[in-house]
Amino acid sequence: MCGISNPENIGSIFRNAAGLGMDAIVLDAQCSHPLMRRAVRVSMGTVLALPWLQLGATAPLLNAVEAAGFTLYALTPAAAQNLADVAFAPRSAIIFGEEAHGLDEAVIARCTGLAIPMAGGVDSLNVAATSAIVFNALRDAKPPG
Predict the structure, then answer these.
(1) By CB distance 3.0 to 4.6 Å, which of 29, 72, 80, 91 could disulfide with 111?
(2) Per the structure, how many domains does the chain have?
């Protein structure tokens, strides 16, 4: 996660990740701390069970994730690739950004861009709702076992 400052969104994303079988969460220093009371409460305690790491600046965080063999995917409304059409890499890292400003262009440039098609003039979803949709797609894309 990059720059997500709302502890309720942090807690919701943790709960979604835990419920949909994600392995871990990595946050940059601009994110609210996952152990803030509100984040823990909204997560229903999953922040205490799911492995997580909060690192400093975004670029070194992405470097570390890539060095560990992960393919980076970023959610951005301008992405050319529809989430439903993605063939996820075996080791995938999904990058979510702050709702108000989205992800920095430098972050988006390093990632495969993904979009959730929207209807009726709505341009985006809440980051927590987006995470649930993407985590479900990623879970469904994993081979059984």
Answers:
(1) 72
(2) 1
